[in-house]
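Attaching the record inline, Q. Sequence:
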Amino acid sequence: MKKSFRIIALFAVLVMMLSMFAGCTNDKDNTASTADITSKVVEKVNVNLATLKGPTGIGMTWLLDSADKGEALNNYTYTIAAAPDEITGKLVNGSIDIAALPTNAAANLYQKTEGKVKLLSLNTLGVLYILENGEKVNSVSDLKGMTIGASGQGAVPEFALNYILTENGIDLEKDVEIKWFDEHSELATQMLTGKVNVAIVPEPFVTTITMQDENIRVALNVTEEWENVADCILSMGCIVVRTEFAEKNPKAVENFLNEYQISVDKTNNNIDETADLCVKYEIVAKKPIAVAAIPRCNIVNITGDDMKDQIKGFYDLLFNFKAGLIGGALPDENFYYEVG
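Structure, as predicted:
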């Protein structure tokens, strides 16, 4: 009986020891697992980001602010450029991973680099307006017989103007004279000094001009006139990603798109604060200009199949107008980034 009691007691001790050992093992495994998960959560991918001054960069301001505060999901370093040429070369050599560009420049770069970039998002729709110092222009047909000041020759502004005029029955050779200027700022000066009375102008120069001369007004919204005659959207700006970067870092691209959507929503819903950020990052020169211009910049974030469906018709028209604007060929399916 005594012997049986000792055996039972010994068995109980062994069971307790095994339980304690198993418990320690499980705790250790759980600790390691938690550490692994925590490591994966806090790990940030380095992303070299670039955006442009003006409308194409306005939607990026809240993301830049989040990056500066250390709150972004990726570890962003960023460049703010005055012209697309400052960005495209760096995309090619790999020193920039994600960038905002004009839509035609994105397609052009895709062809020139044989697929080294992908279209990630449409971020800016129409930003063009017809300004007039006077009250004569109330429809596109009223432009017949006039001299129109313009900038952006060889790019989307020229195409948009020509397309709208032609579709409204205006002969570009006989019915109008288009006077081209090298810079938007030069055109703005010409309007403000009275040397040009009618012009097609992008934001934020529209606001800059109309705020300085109350006699100059927005006569026509080019985006609305485009929609009256075209079966596709007028898309001025977009975001591209280096193909190699996207393939190696799909999660970082996903995080960027999510954060950019938040930035765009804040841009459109908090105009006063967005204007402050535009000035902070030198995307727009002055707050009053940004406040007035932002609602007319059509800041969006269109991705995936919607992006593809909406831009293809626009690229078709660009190709038929001047194939060189998009690199001499229509982008193939590999150009469009597929959202996972």
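Residues 1 and 233 are 94 Å apart (CA to CA). The chain has two domains: 46-124+235-335, 128-229.

More tomorrow.
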